[in-house]
Amino acid sequence: MFNALILAYYYPPMGLSGVQRTLKFTKYMPKFNWQPTVITTGKTAYYAHDFELLKEAEKAGVIIKRTESFDPNSLLKKMGTVKMPNEKLRKLMSNASKTLFIPDNKKFWSNKAYRFASSILKSQQFDVLFVSIPPFSSFTAAAKLKKRFQIPLIVDYRDSWHGNQFAFNPTPYHSYKHKRLEDSALRAADKIIVVNRMIKENLLKTFQFLTFDDVVIIPHGFDAEDFENVAPIKEHTNKMKVLYSGIFYENVTPKFLLRAFKILTKERPDIAANIELQFVGHLRKENIKFIKRLGLEGFVKNFGYLNHKETVRKIVSADVLWVMLGKKNMRNVSAGKFFEYIGSRKPILATVPEGATKSAAEKYGASYLAKPEDINSIKKTIIKLHDDFIANKLPKPDEDFIQQHNRENLTQQLTKIFQFYLRTDL
């Protein structure tokens, strides 16, 4: 077995989509003769915890090392799982944090992780160092480790750093400092992995010292094991069930679809009566109030946050799965939930802008596309979906596309990159 040291702030028992990619990579690394040791955070306050995911990592033999620091999540750890605040308050707190801390408020944890990793690297031989970002501060810590210990460094961009869709730079200095830090970290990296072509193109355009071969695309994916032997929930209704799994924040919002559905209840009450809108995750108080204001309570089922295993069962029990991205600054985003959905082979309603997620939805072959903030477009697409559902003509997805996004296959691609950097002089 070869040894990979991994820096990943977001890792089980934290839940939500940010942990999935790194967790599944580490789960399958031992199948390809790589032993992962993950340095992650200790107890935290967070919006979701999923101890079933932690068991999955432990069962796979992942070595997990934990360290805490003065980042906000650690300081509030006694609160455990916390509710998401109102979106206006959440965004205000987020922008205040981005004003005060560059590159992010996880820099304190990243500094602690650097010291912790240094002590491990002094006493144990590792073949590669792998870091998952965001948080971006962990990339700067990993770059320091690379320079100090001369260990091959591979960085995995789950999202862009420069040009990030949720970036907030209150002064020119903030923008300059972020770019300078990213430039320095990238110069230390041996290989850069991104989730889609658009992030790769942005990196090559922004940091022109990078070559085409420096940046490799390994997309998001799904874990086939999650969907094995999962029986759909038996329902006492023949309604078309449209399910959204995840959280809403920034311009990822249910309001445009809900407005479209409200119009549908007036123009085509026969169709609306045969549809159930389901939500798994954090629907949030303001959205629940919005549903009540529209008078749509009778059409909506809110299951709240469920662990990953229970969420997958809801996914396979639905007739249609919904993914949403706002039209502002979302071109480079590959929605992780879309790739989770494809493991179910269900039709997907994608209300997304031009960009990476729309491109993937088109290739999937069983997608219904609508403009994300165009109420009339969404309404017409729901009608088309329902017509096909009633006629038993819902499309089948492209199986080749699905297999390209199997997590085990994607991990094999990653370990082949690791293999390239094995030292032969030892």
Describe the overall structure.
With 426 residues, the chain is of the alpha/beta class. It folds into 2 domains: 2-221 and 407-420, Glycogen Phosphorylase B (Rossmann fold, 3-Layer(aba) Sandwich), CATH 3.40.50; 225-403, 3-Layer(aba) Sandwich (Rossmann fold), CATH 3.40.50. 43% of the residues lie in helices and 17% in strands. It has helices at 20-28, 51-59, 72-75, 87-100, 107-123, 137-149, 172-188, 197-206, 224-227, 255-267, 269-272, 285-294, 308-317, 336-341, 356-364, 375-390, 399-403, 407-420; strands spanning 2-7, 34-41, 63-67, 128-133, 153-157, 191-194, 215-217, 240-247, 275-282, 300-304, 320-324, 348-351, 367-370. The strands form 2 sheets. A 7-stranded parallel β-sheet has the order 3-2-1-4-5-6-7, sandwiched between helices. A 6-stranded parallel β-sheet has the order 10-9-8-11-12-13, with helices on both faces. Strand 4, helix 6 (137-149) and strand 5 form a beta-alpha-beta unit.
Question: What is this structure's SSE topology?
Answer:
Blueprint: E1 2-7, H1 20-28, E2 34-41, H2 51-59, E3 63-67, H3 72-75, H4 87-100, H5 107-123, E4 128-133, H6 137-149, E5 153-157, H7 172-188, E6 191-194, H8 197-206, E7 215-217, H9 224-227, E8 240-247, H10 255-267, H11 269-272, E9 275-282, H12 285-294, E10 300-304, H13 308-317, E11 320-324, H14 336-341, E12 348-351, H15 356-364, E13 367-370, H16 375-390, H17 399-403, H18 407-420
Parallel strand pairs: 1-2, 1-4, 2-3, 4-5, 5-6, 6-7, 8-9, 8-11, 9-10, 11-12, 12-13
